[in-house]
Design brief:
40% helix, alpha+beta, 3-stranded antiparallel sheet, DNA-binding, homodimer, globular, 5 helices, 3-stranded mixed sheet
DNA sequence: TATAATTTTGAGACAGCTTATCAATTTCAA
DNA sequence: TTGAAATTGATAAGCTGTCTCAAAATTATA
């Protein structure tokens, strides 16, 4: 259980080493908690970790999640007014299907859509760096 | 000039009528200003309208733009921490190409992408209500 | 291992954007 | 014209996220 996220831990250590940053108890704690989720907000993580460490500050959570983004382990996504951090350490790019009924989020990837996006960009003289595609609707359960 | 947005005005009036809302001088003023733009923030509109009516409050702008969204005349889009309101009264759905260099926004629509989105949704048991697709990159000018 | 330089943390202040509050004003149906 | 109901303007408050800074933790060095 404690050794489950070795690879990501190594990736984090590598990033820390390259940037004169330090490995702290909090960063380890937050990394392990983060890797157990798919999409989570800083606030949610704050409450979740309150049991493990009641003095862990919200600012530290934000700082650390942003650090994970820099290290390529996480990716921030803005859903409405909230920012959710995705675990992208072990998977490639993906887009989202979001149920407006139960808030469920389904990930997907579609090569063909990606290709068409490139085509549109090229036609307009753009070079894409990133993109975001979110489909909002009702999942099969919420439809009834 | 004053009569240019008759159709949208009618649409607004219809919405107001259906919901026991009233047509005010401010709503007319804001509608006319709004229809002259493609994408605008409440703050920008506030400054823009300060000349026409120095006492027009920012809260009224927000309230009114949200009203336009309810009426189907506008659509709110979150770009980073800002919310931009799009004029969607006279055009169909469209997506965005956004230059991260100069903030330029280019609209586009692509039937094929839309179709593939439906396909993905169906495969996952979803029924799409709305979606958002934003491509971030550099435009031809900013690339040099 | 002890030391010192450097980074990190926690707590709360602060900032940016948006909504809520509420008395005064305006609209509109009768 | 009148009066109930909605709207406005000003500002307080809320929310999310970042900044500040003294105290604590980490890491390189001796």
């Amino acid at each position: 259980m404690a050794n489950k996220h070795v690879k990501e831990m190594e990736a984090l250590k590598e990033h820390l080493g390259k940037h004169q940053l330090k490995l702290t108890r909090q960063r380890e704690l937050i990394l392990n908690a983060f890797l157990r989720q798919e999409h989570i907000t800083a606030e949610a993580m704050y409450h979740q970790l309150a049991k493990a460490d009641p003095h862990l500050g919200l600012a530290t959570i934000y700082r650390t999640l942003n650090l994970f983004c820099d290290a390529g382990l996480a990716q921030a996504r803005h859903f409405g007014s909230q920012t959710k951090y995705d675990n992208v350490s072990h998977k490639g790019h993906h887009d989202h299907l979001i149920c407006t009924g139960c808030e469920k989020i389904v990930e997907f990837e579609n090569e063909e859509i990606e290709r068409l996006q490139e085509e549109v960009a090229t036609r307009n003289g753009f070079i894409i760096k990133t993109h975001r595609l979110e489909l909002y609707g009702l999942c099969s359960r919420c439809r009834h």
